[in-house]
Structure formats: structure tokens, C-alpha cells
UniProtKB/TrEMBL annotation:
CDD domains: PBP2_PotD_PotF_like
Pfam families: SBP_bac_8 (PF13416)
Record protein name field: Spermidine/putrescine ABC transporter substrate-binding protein
Entries under PROSITE patterns matching the protein: TAT (PS51318)
Annotated InterPro entries: SBP, Sperm_putr-bd, TAT_signal
Keywords for the protein's UniProt record, in alphabetical order: Periplasm, Signal, Transport
Lineage: Bacteria, Bacillati, Actinomycetota, Actinomycetes, Kitasatosporales
Compartments, as annotated in UniProt: Periplasm
Length: 415
């Protein structure tokens, strides 16, 4: 197996850069930009757009369409990612892990942060994919539900395991078998996104919060509870609280979860449904407790000792952003080598130290301890086995289900 070793930074350098990252660039986090998931798409008529415009209906496929691979003669790979989703150097312009990969392989990475939301980006690449043309990208990063759609449409390529030895070996168990890509034949996770219960200890003023029911039912929290505008996260956590598996629920289960949430809305228990903007309300204490994304909680806790989190005994929701190779990509082998690189513990640790989301790489903790011991021991970044066991994923939806479920959720939230 090839070994790539990105430049190492001292713990002091990393700590200073992380403070700068939190206080500056990280103010606009990855999830703050993920506002047009399937829910956001519905509000803009996006679900229709996903299945219209001549796009064939989603169904099982045998894989995407390859192009002639120019990896050997063209030592490059074109990587499209979300904004603020890569490690940066102290200038704010360089990316140490990408530069380490380039030096050791001779493959230059053309890295572009041109993904602002799933639906918008899908609209950008849809015409080329539908026409069987090269998008100009070798790696794209998409959230579960859209990654699943592209796989069903046959618009991404099956990966070559021979080029992914580290990825196959080091992929964390909780990310190995999503129902939309069993065994990860077409995708590998870039980062995991966990949904937990966050709270402001001062605002709780002695109130105990351990479950979602505590948020929805305690009259002392009336008007001081926040839920998320991401349907899969809020409904998924509600299903878990009702002892239903988000990976296997029925339409009746979904309706029961919506009814449970509607009761809380009707009695004004819920202050509001939010995207990433819950962070300021939680910090100020306007929200005593809320559903939150783990990456945000890590950053908030670093700056405010009153911020805490709890993982309900019933479990928590985990999704992922995923690396895929679109049809007709010119540099498939180079792309697979870059994917594999991020599943080596050392570059994975360097990335995790900056962006604070769930690292999907086993064996990364020892390397991360050398960079940032606090991050290495944070279960929101490196889940231990007990936390991994509580992780649950929202099952794939058919196009019909997606439309119906999002309509009901939009009515609940007033979107």
C-alpha cells in the first residue's frame, strides 16, 4: 500500500489555527450552507426539478459510464467540495493535506469549493450527466439522499477496490453499509454528520434533559426549544424517541412522528425550526435546548462552557457527505487514489483537527492525539464503540415518499 505523509504541524500551530478558524472562516459552517436538502428543494419546487426535465425515473442500475482514463498522462484530479470543508494553512489559502498528496504522488489537485447546496449543485451538473457528457469533475461530494439518487440514475461510476486499500480497511463500521450503497460500491464518506441534543446549562437552570421527550413535554421549556429544518434529522430523532427505527419505518410511523411534533408546535413548546442559525440562540440562552449538529457543538463548547450535549439512550441520527466519481470523469484512477488517501489515519487526522465533523476513518485517534488531544477524545469527532452503537441512519425514500413526506414536514414547520 502506498503511504502518503502530509506535512505535520505542531500542536501550538494547530491550536492557533483552529481558534482563527472558529472565529473567522468557521462562522459560516458546512451545515449552515446545507439549507436546500430535499426539504429546501420542495419549497422551491426542487423535488419536481429532480425528477423532471427529461431525467429518467430512479431505479436500480448496473453502474455509471466510464470514459477513457487519462490519469497516467494527465497528473491531475478535479475535486468539487462544499465551502469551508477542508483543512487550511495559516494564510487561509493553502490546503496542507492536498499539498501533501500532490507532493508524494505527483498528482495536482484542482480543488474547488463550488457546492453551496445539494439541489443547486445537482442543477448545475444535471445537463451534462443527462446528456452523457463529462462534468469537468473527478470527485464530487454529496449528502446521502442525493448521492443515492445519482447512484440510482446510473450517473456515477463504480469504484475499483484495487485503488482503495486504505478506504476498504479503515472505513468505520457505522458507515460501511448504507441502504442506498451497500458495501460502498460507488461512494466513500467524506465526513459524518451527527444530530444530537445540545443545551445551554445556564438557561436550563437545573432542568434535566436526557431525551427528546424532555424537550417536547416539559412546560418549563415552553418557547425555548429548537428543532431542525432538516426533515431527516428532526423526524429521525422523533422516531427514535418513539422506539421506531428510522431505517425501517412505515408511512404510518412517519405520520405518528409528525403528529407528535405537531402537538409540541400547537402548544408553543417549539421556539422555531432552524438551520445552522440555532447556534446564536443557544449561546445567548434564548434556546435552552435544541437538536443540533455535532460539528457545531464542538465549536460552541470550545467558546462557551455552558454549552453541553446529550446522546439519548434511544440513539441519534447520523448521515454523511460522500465522495463520488461522476460519469465520464477523465481521471478516475487519480480520483480513487485521492479518496483512498483520506482514509489513511494521518491525513484523516489532520482534516478532522480542522473541520470537527465525525471522522469516518478507524485508527485515526492515535494520530489526532498528536495534533489535538481534546479533539481526539471528543466522541462527537471520534465516536467510541458505545456511541457508534447508538448511531442510526434514515432509510432511503422513493420519489413518491420523498414528495409526500416533505410536504407534511413543510406544513409542520410553516415552510
Amino acid at each position: 500500500m502506498e503511504q502518503y505523509e502530509p506535512d505535520r504541524l505542531s500542536p501550538a500551530q494547530v491550536a492557533a489555527m483552529r481558534r482563527s478558524f472558529r472565529n473567522g472562516r468557521a462562522a459560516l459552517t458546512r451545515r449552515s450552507l446545507l439549507r436546500a436538502s430535499a426539504g429546501g428543494a420542495l419549497a422551491a419546487g426542487g423535488l419536481t426539478a429532480l425528477t423532471g426535465c427529461g431525467i429518467p425515473p430512479a431505479g436500480n442500475t448496473e453502474g455509471g459510464v466510464s470514459a477513457e482514463d487519462h490519469s497516467e498522462e494527465e497528473k491531475t484530479v478535479n475535486f468539487s467540495n462544499w465551502t469551508e470543508y477542508m483543512d487550511v494553512d495559516d494564510s487561509g489559502r493553502g490546503h496542507p493535506t492536498l499539498e501533501g498528496f500532490a507532493r508524494r504522488t505527483g498528482i495536482k489537485v484542482k480543488y474547488t469549493e463550488d457546492i453551496n447546496d445539494n439541489t443547486e449543485f445537482f442543477g448545475k451538473i444535471k445537463p451534462q450527466l443527462a446528456a452523457g457528457q463529462d462534468t469537468g469533475r473527478d470527485i464530487i461530494v454529496l449528502t446521502d439522499w442525493l448521492a443515492a439518487r445519482l447512484i440510482r440514475l446510473g450517473w456515477v461510476q463504480k469504484l475499483d477496490p484495487a485503488n482503495l486499500p486504505h478506504a476498504f480497511t479503515n472505513l468505520s463500521a457505522q458507515f460501511r453499509n448504507p441502504d442506498w450503497d451497500p458495501g460502498r460500491a460507488y461512494s466513500y464518506p467524506w465526513q459524518g454528520i451527527s444530530t444530537v441534543i445540545a443545551f445551554n446549562r445556564k438557561a436550563l437552570d437545573g432542568i434535566e434533559v436526557k431525551t427528546l421527550s424532555d424537550l417536547l413535554d416539559n412546560p418549563r421549556l415552553k418557547g425555548r426549544v429548537g428543532l431542525l429544518t432538516e426533515m431527516r434529522d428532526t423526524v429521525g430523532m422523533t422516531l427514535l424517541d418513539m422506539d421506531k427505527d428510522p431505517g425501517k419505518f412505515t408511512a404510518d410511523d412517519y405520520d405518528a412522528a409528525i403528529a407528535r411534533l405537531q402537538k409540541a408546535v400547537d402548544k408553543s413548546q417549539i421556539r422555531r425550526f432552524t438551520g445552522n442559525d440555532y447556534t446564536s440562540d443557544l449561546t445567548k440562552g434564548d434556546l435552552a435546548a435544541c437538536l443540533a449538529w455535532a460539528g457545531d457543538v464542538v465549536q460552541l463548547k470550545a467558546d462557551n462552557p455552558d454549552i453541553g450535549f446529550v446522546i439519548p439512550d434511544s440513539g441519534y441520527m447520523t448521515s454523511s457527505d460522500n465522495m463520488l466519481i461522476p460519469n465520464k470523469a477523465r481521471h478516475k484512477t487519480n480520483a480513487e487514489r485521492l479518496i483512498d488517501y483520506y482514509f489513511e489515519p494521518r491525513p484523516a487526522a489532520q482534516l478532522a483537527a480542522y473541520i470537527n465533523f465525525v471522522c469516518p476513518v478507524d485508527g485515526v485517534k492515535a494520530e489526532l492525539e498528536k495534533i489535538d488531544e481534546d479533539a481526539a477524545n471528543n466522541p462527537l469527532i471520534i465516536p467510541d464503540k458505545a456511541m457508534q452503537a447508538k448511531s442510526r441512519a434514515f432509510r432511503s425514500l422513493s420519489s413518491k415518499e420523498e414528495t409526500a413526506f416533505e410536504e407534511k414536514f413543510a406544513k409542520l414547520t410553516g415552510a
